[in-house]
Amino acid sequence: MAGIFKRFLGKFFRNLFKKKKDIKLGLYGPPNGGKTTLANKICQDWLGEDMGSVSNVAHETREIQIKEEITIKHKGRELKFNLVDTPGIATRIDYEEFIKEGMKEKEAKERAKEATKGVIDSIKWLDDMDAVIVVLDSTKDPYTQVNITIIGNLEARNIPVLLVGNKVDLKKSDLKKMQAAFPQYELIGISAKFGKNMDDFYETLFKITK
Amino acid sequence: MLTFQFVPYSEIEALSSIKRINKLMKLVKENKIILLEGKLKSHEETELIAKTMEEIDGKFRGIELGVVHPESKDNMLLWHKIRQTLIDALLGDRKGFTIIGPASIIKEIKNDPEKIQLMIEEAASKK
């Protein structure tokens, strides 16, 4: 109870002194959902540059990355925000998985260590977000506890959520199953890699951040 | 051999969030699969994940977590919805159950709304 009150007070005072232009838009989700690919797509569309590196090996993003003052112009409206790309949240990190992907033991252990710190940072940053895009791989089972925990925490903090089902270009993509798992949210299916359905994505982004 | 440890909600009810998480983490690190009556609060779930990350080393690879928490359905009759709301108010976080286990034993928890499935690591099942 004291924790909830402390968080509420913290958020209240942060909001009190925050200017509208400082909107922090977070990208959250499990590893390999395509958060950085989407961050790159947004940055390419509006800044003409990438935000971070992407890889098929999980936990490529191990530090919080921020791109400041992105301005989206859509149908005569304008939205200015700082984009925060976060490391994927997981409950397990096994360096041996990285060895299976071809890494040397030392490199794999270092990556695992950095990844654990990254998860902790992602969690710490939750309180600072004004709106969050939850990026899930639409080819994977949406009923995982990590997904439920992320969304439950955003709900409890009253942070607006845009739920994105990424990788709709792949055959196994199942948006219906995702929507059934989280019926309380409007779901936007995109392919960040190929820029599919980005107009709908930006339209919904305006809705949740207004 | 797999060890399941039942933790009644009454055992964690009076504990602070940090103490709850430390208690659960201690059991998981003893290679036990916890069947917790009820569920943790959403911020406690993230704190449990953060604590797990702090504990990960060469031996401890993390946890698997699954929560079964029946929610009221949209197609319920009004009377059933009212009854459900009353039950929710009375039971709070006592409703449902939570499974937490070490990642070295549980490969995956499939948490479909109708059922929960535990995929056990092959090496763990042969021990």
What's this, in brief?
Chain A has 210 residues and is α/β, with parallel strands linked by helices. Helices cover 40% and strands 19% of the residues of chain A. Chain A starts with a helix and ends with a helix.
Structure description:
The complex is a heterodimer of chains A (210) and B (127). Chain A is an alpha/beta fold and 210 residues long. In chain A, strand 4 (131-137), helix 5 (145-156) and strand 5 form a beta-alpha-beta unit. Chain A is 40% helix and 19% strand. The model of chain A has no long low-confidence stretch (mean pLDDT 90). The longest helix of chain A has 21 residues, at 105-125. In chain B, helix 2 crosses helix 3. In chain B, the strands form two sheets. Chain B has a four-stranded mixed beta sheet. In chain B, strands 5-6 form a two-stranded antiparallel ribbon. The relative contact order of chain B is 0.19. Chain B is an alpha+beta fold. Chain B has one domain. Chain B contains five helices and six strands. The mean pLDDT of chain B is 87. In chain B, 39% of the residues lie in helices and 25% in strands. Chains A and B meet through helix 1, helix 4 and helix 5 of A and helix 3 and strand 3 of B.
Beta-strand portion of chain A reads 15-25%
Helix content percent band of chain A: 40-55%
Number of domains of chain A: 1
Which geometry of chain A do the CA atoms define?
globular
Briefly note the structural class of the backbone of chain B.
alpha+beta
Cross-sheet strand order for the largest sheet of chain A: 2-3-1-4-5-6
Rounded to the nearest angstrom, the radius of gyration of chain B is 16 Å
The portion of residues assigned to helices of chain B is: 25-40%
Q: Oligomeric status of the shown chains?
A: heterodimer
Rounded mean pLDDT score of chain B: 87
Helical stretch count of chain A? 7
Provide the CATH top-level class of chain A: Alpha Beta
What's the alpha carbon Rg of chain A, rounded to whole Å?
Answer: 17 Å
Shape of chain B: globular
Strand segment count of chain A: 6
The poorly predicted ranges of chain A are none
Q: What is the CATH architecture term of chain A? A: 3-Layer(aba) Sandwich
Largest interface, chains and sizes: A-B, 32 and 28 residues
Structural class of chain A: alpha/beta
CATH superfamily of chain A: P-loop containing nucleotide triphosphate hydrolases
Order of helices and strands of chain B: EHHEHEHEEEH
